[in-house]
Description:
heterodimer; A: Uridine Diphospho-n-acetylenolpyruvylglucosamine Reductase, domain 3; Enolase-like, domain 1; 36% helix; B: seven-stranded mixed sheet
Amino acid sequence: MKPAPFAYLRARSVAEALEMLGASAHRDADAHTKVLAGGQSLLTLMNLRLARPDQLVDIGGLMELSRTFEDTDSVVLGALVRHRTLETDPKLGKRLPLVAAAAGQIGHVAIRNRGTLGGSLSHADPAAELPLAMLVHEAVIHVESATSGRRTIRAEDFVESIFTTTMQADELLTWVTVPSARPGQGWGFVEFAPRIGDYAQAGAACLVTVAPDGSVAAIRAGLLAAADRPLVVSEPGDEVSGIPTHETWERLAAHWTRNLEPLTDDPDHTRHLCRAALSQALADAYRRARTDQEEAA
Amino acid sequence: MSAPPPRVTHGPGEPYVGTSVPRVEDQRLLDGRGRFLADLAAGALSVVFLRSTEAHAVIESIDTTRATDMPGVVGVYTGNDLPLARDYIGSLHTPDPGFVAATGFRMPEQRLAILPVDRVHYVGQPVVALVASDRYLGEDALEAVDITYRPLPAVLDPSASLAPDAAPIHPHLPDNEAGRIEVEFGDDVAADAVAVTVEGTYRIGRHGAVPLEGRGVLARVDGQRVSVWTSTQIPHLVRQGICEATGWSVDAVRVVVPDVGGGFGTKANVYAEEVVVPVLARLTGHDLVWVEDRQEHLVGSAQGRDQVHRTRLSVDREGRVLRWEDDFLLDIGAGGLWVAGVVANTAIHLLGPYRIPRVRLRGRAAFTNKTITAQYRGAGRPEACFALERSLDDAAGRLGITPVEIRRRNLLTAADLPYAQPLPYRDGVPIVYDGGDYLRCLDSVLELLPAETVERLAAEHPDLTIGHGVGCYIEATGRGSFESGRVRLTSTGGFEVASGAASAGQAHETVFAQVAADGLGCSLELVTVRRSDTDLVRHGVGTFASRSAVLAGSAIRRAAEQLLDQATGRAAQLLGVSPDLVKSTASGFAAADGSSEWEISWADLATACAPGGAQEQLGPLDVVEYFHPETVTWTMGAHAAVVGVHRGTGAVSVLSYAVAHEGGVEINPQVVEGQVIGGVAQGIGGALLEQFRYSPTGQPTSTTLAEYLLPGTCDVPDVQVRHLGVATPCNPLGVRGAGESGTIAVSATVAGAVEDALHGLVRVSETPIRTGPLRAAAEQIRREGQ
């Protein structure tokens, strides 16, 4: 379990990292350069020789990308913000409780101490927590290239398929803008794994917006590990009328998972797990929204 | 005869045996100062192995030319390049002829090549060994070795492997049968006596030990000798394996065991790597090291379990067992040097701790194209226990009595014990359970974890449906033929203890010191237990089969007593008094004749034995003893579990667990408790998580720890343990083995609890327990409950 030979470059600035990525893409179209951040997936895959990059550009020293900014309606997160920060930072947790909960489900503490937001999104594992959280939050991902400059990609358009994003080879994920939780909005995140810290067998995240009278104004819900990418499953046409009950969430979860084709050994079982996770996440989100409203009142 | 109650602390003048003195090795092992195999590697070149990528194939060619030219490569070796006297490792166990005669036991000779040149038999089999300046360059160079395989159909199902038309996997054998056994006794049962007959098919998954530390071998040539450090439980058998394969003299090979991070049976095996590394050290003249990585471990280290039992159990109206039949099948993969042990263990332990008048068992082991197997903790016992205990639960359900009740009616009690079975043990000696009262274990475990616990836990876990299960097991422990123990007085008046029973972390340094200190009558601080080394004890067998405390403990005890006896005579001579006036003290000897008092310390005695001392001509005080038990001694226990099944997913959580076990004298009660709890943890892994899986073409798919799931701390609840000591007359310490006890009944107990949680809507008949059917049942309960 030793990696195949590779060249190693450590960037001292974002600009330098972009130059390194650009130079490598320009020099040899077949050369395979990977960005190294927390290394929690990449280094394992390299040690198994399943990933064989010719070159690593290590961005671990770019402190600027570890920063976070709080805007009025959103939070801007640097690509190098660690999972553990998302999980435990009280200010972030207040603005992005769903992200905090999702981050807390990633691996074990040692992994969360090293793993980064940008790394998780770029890796695009369909079972990963943060890509789903970003999708449900309708986050916007900022990428940058030495030649083509900056652009933004909606979280919905970011993942192409398993382990593949819509970023170009010379692009670096730099920042993520995440709309923060709004009043009346409750969150739910439920994940099932064989053991704590394992890759999820199924998981659901949602944001449920509740009107002051207790009726449901909006739902945005998604699933992980249900396809080759995180999926939004809520359908805006499926309005919830009146005050929802346990059966409401069960019915919605069943409806929204009915057409899933999970890529697992036992798709039927996985579909059931998705349904159970979604139903519980919806119920949790609604309950949290109501509790917040009651406390505010 | 009851064992004395355990003491927590050691008082002056009291024996150390029976006291939970702190483990002396823990400080070193826990603060990172342990010296494991990989810690010894400095200065050695790396050996890396190219392993078969095919489950079953003919090797058409191996071309090492490109690899030989790669940077850092010292040499590339195939099986043709190794100067071997014999190119395979021989069986590690042959049952006694008396047992063979009674059971029709048969097994063919296995000849799995150390490095095959013509045919591979499993993915992970070492094929080419490469010596490089470091492991990185070595792995790069492995990619330049060109092997052409012509694939053959992979045989993965043991039934298909044993089918009459199946092609033999091993060309020197007529078929794929790796072993067979038949046991039958008792009179036919009258049909009208039978109230219920249950039939079942029970599958125990392919599980393995997966110790914290993998294997590893370091070899160093020193003149005519080769010293081999290896992470093993059986240094003397490794030495034997090396000598048989190479033709080297036993005097030319030294095997040393460093700190070992867990063995559990997978290191109680002799491996190709343990032969190849010293052979290459000789060939190259370099110190060489190979440290197994986790990926290699999961395809190349011996696995276990993987049995199918087809059972038939008949009981009368009262639930008393009348007849028990089982036709079982073991998948031993491409080979298993302990196949005799595992087949016989399975058959013998199918008899259980019960009164069973009529028994008919048939077992067969099959070769397949999976990774090799050895004895994994329990080695047939957990599998046998699963089949019998699951059948009892089934019969109880059909009769409308509880699982506890059917066991209560069949367990052997004080009135039955000792209990003779009409069958010899593997050593040829007729089986007699030397226990005290097995029913007491069941009562005791229910005191620890009563069925009513379910209600309390149900209230705490509304998302779970909760159930209670029980399971009982029996375990033959302390198998011969012998083990060695050496005690010697050092030049400074301390003692060194050594044994062939190597430690893999089981507290040998503590418990053997306790035994020796009691035998010597000295203070514990004077005793140091050395790690196993074939130069320290010339003969030995090893640590496995719950045998070290029983055999090595007894050998050390006797060696210590003999040394004390010899020393008493020498002390008397030095003091000029009659030996019967000399008494041993914590620090040496004292004598008194009424008017005068004399004292002599162990250090004084050591000085007298040394060159220039008064007793130089008597030589050192150094005693080696071999303990040969007459036969095994039996441990019995009962387990109880409360589990929760998640209503939405079917996932199983073990919420509470208890073990009551009838062991013998406990040398160190805390160590025994640790063994039991660790065994339960390993059992939970097998019951719920662990499985070596293979694709239809024989590719292993559990090749990382993200796929082979081990239980973590969150998966194992607190385990309550109650020890019901019954000393055995079978050995001078009165001890019974406990190393495997904790793991044996776990799958059966958890399975029973799962069925209880799901109101009997599912039958659990395989491990690891699949959650899909449980989820469906949990949903059904929820629907019907609404």
